[in-house]
Records
---
Amino acid sequence: MDEYLKQILKTKRIGFAVFNENLQLLGHNFRFTAYRMPADLTPQPSLWQLFSLLTGSEETIQAIITGRKSEYTIEKVNSLDPAGRITYHNLTFYSLPSHVNKSERLLCLIDDVTTQAALEQQIRQKNYEIQLVKAQLLSKDQFLASGLLGDSEPIRMVREFVHKVSNHNTTILLQGESGTGKSLVARLIHNAAATTDKSPFVEINCAAIPETLLESELFGYEKGAFTNALSSKQGLLEAADGGTLFLDEIGELPSSMQVKLLTFLETMRFRRLGGIEEKRVQLRLVAATNKNLKEAISQNEFRQDLFYRINVAALSLPPLRDLGPDVIILAEHFMRVLAIDLKKEMEGFSPAAKQKLGNYLWPGNVRELRNVIERAIIFATGDIIDASDLLIMDDFADLGNGLTKNIRLPEEGLSLEEVERDLLNQSLKQSHGNQSQAARLLGLSLDTFRYRIHKYGLTPENYR
Amino acid sequence: MTSAQNGVVYSKKICMLGTFGVGKSSLVKRFVHGIFDDTYLSTIGVQIYEKHLGPFPGACSNELNLVIWDLANIEKLTSATKTYFGGAAAAIVVFDLTRHQTFDEKRIYLQAFRDKNPRATYIFATNKSDLFATHEVPAPLTALAKSYAAPCVRTSAKTGENVARIFQMLGESLLT
């Protein structure tokens, strides 16, 4: 019988040891030595010397010694074998009845479960990796975008504003130059106020949707409301119910829509196009613009009553050039995040690069900074970004043999929008509708280029 | 409990809690071994570390031997998980600043830990601060941290930011 038992213990790679009522080691098999017997221990070590992991389990062990508890198992305890590989053991402590042997009170079994645990680890590793990648993709838009970086006074004021307004369900107006992070602040307000992860954040760029579609996009429509309304569709107001509706570039909202939006904001009620039923929603409206709305009012481009309705809590976002050393903080943040995306190891910026970042005025604000850093990471040869890797607008001017420096504003002035549209048009012609090529010609990222051609209603297909 | 040069050496068990991939193991490895490896290797079962802290001048120069249980797969509350929680004096609850979901998920493990250890001390670590520079405590965590009387500390296992500090804070709290 003893021989069978020995054989079983050997085959199953089980170590065991027996302890007395004072928890001194009485005896053990060879395998236990391999698992748990450091060479420098006293000849009769105590259970506590052998198993520091039992800290906190004193009562449980006492219950086993006294027979009040029959066993206690700790599953899959990790340890390293002499070769540095992870091994897994189940540790079980059994109560030994005093009538069998007066001195032996506690049996410890160490069962090597490395094979099945390693298999489990591999499966779980794959599963977790997939979930982490999914979460990263989601977070990149949802949560990373909500961080507000920097320690400068203007940024502190923005943080304070976000903190204050997030406690009240009020309408918010964000003003500031293009690229100052209006969308980001809107999202931050939403995240700070959201009680659950499911609160929707719905963003719409008023300039990006044709006037004819804007109403149906916002209010939704019922089946048959117009020729192609083959089924009913929920609008963005309904989609934002319980959350935040972010209207970007509200200064571009057509006047007919301004009236409708005002009516909605007064009552929070609306009807879908072609609908009879009045719907009511609860949402926070955050509007943003880079236009001077007061000027737009004086030119009859924006309704004064709508302005007063949305201008309950207003914030003017500081341009990047006013943030001082925060430019470096932002640049370092973009470097870390974008380096992960671009799968490059980056350490930081050289002193000359930092100086260049700090001296430039950043007319395109944070958006421009991000694009500059992205390009620098792609083209940097080492893990330090140097001044020459940072291709900013001044450098683009140099690349064009100083062409842009020779442009002079005519005395009678000009429409910047017309010039922009014309340049976009030319770039598309020159590249035969190839957007990447056209974007490169203008020194823009593909996203910015797409955004701009959409803004002016230019279609690349028409140039092919 | 054993004698030290000027005070007493206490042994306390603490558990690292949090969903997968938040950086529990990385924080412990940074604290115990001073190393960081950004390769993600999921833990199975429990990995146990020890670290000696002190003497703590504010606690009669007593010292502390921390037995740190780095736990895995605690999202699913099994009998094995509950066994892991037993006898713990404190927990460091880890969240991932770059994964909003880690703030909002159901944390049945946290309630189970509290049921098992009603007098435990807590610290909330918002980890991966090197990837996310906001200094705000994420809104969903504020109320939760308050209900556990837990300070919220930004940490980065990668840069080491506040890693030693959270264990030191916990040590002081356990001895005073």
Note: The longest helix of chain B spans residues 163-175.
---
Amino acid sequence: MHIPDGYLSPAVAGTTLLITLGVLVFAIRKISSTRDSLSEKTPLFTALSAGIFVAQMIAWPIPGGTSLHLVGGALAGILVGPWLGILSMSLVLFVQCLIFHDGGLTAIGANIINMGIVGVLVGYVVFKAVYKASKKVWLSGFLAGWLSLVLAGLTCGIELGISWSSALPIYVMTSWHAILGLIEGLITSGVVSYLTIKSLKIGGGFSAFS
Amino acid sequence: MLSRKTILTLLTLLIVSPVFGVILAEEIGYHEPLDIAAEELGLNESEFTWTPLKDYTVPGLPEWLGYIVCGALGILVITLIGSIIERFVKR
């Protein structure tokens, strides 16, 4: 889902960059105000960011048409909370873009919005809501991962759609990610369930449980 | 800093990554939904690049090895930045 250079209009590229910068400043301010618990979460932040980076390199080609890799936005939101999760995904996306040209420089704002902001916030909110209602970690993780990818794909489709005055990318990106998101949901559910069962003591529990 | 268990997990993922990211991707043809949307719209990626490590390749190395080297470099950079943040927060 990494948008390269040349896919977005200058207006969309500029607007998404401004929105991203605003959200990153807001996220840093929110994190700074909770500095006490932050020192406990930063080791997980580092491990999570490195883990998401390498997990995204494992691309699964699906015979018959398309491919996928874990995005990890929901996972980041569930494990370290929305604001640190946004920073974790942003760090991964900056490294991918600046060092490996995975995603365009002009599209960095859009890519962070799709995978790092929408993906994280949707994953976090859905996990919290479903867990509160069902108390089932696997179900909450699955729906969080699935919906985070579907809405990240929808956002990406909207950005392309506005750039080229076409509804087609919205349909293509949402429909494909509704299918591929099932695997994001399974991986998110598996990792969160595993870490919960192992009862890893990280920062006094995962952010989305509190 | 990363725990030994985390480092082992990262190394395992790193070593298997070319199987999926290079070998299977070439066998079956890596094709994301974004590629499908771009084809429908007739979009072309800009040729301009700013790094010799584009798409996780290292000039002069076989693709699978370059993929692992790039993965290791990415993990190293992220861990370094994470460690700097950890030190800053502990102050």
Note: The mean pLDDT of chain B is 89.
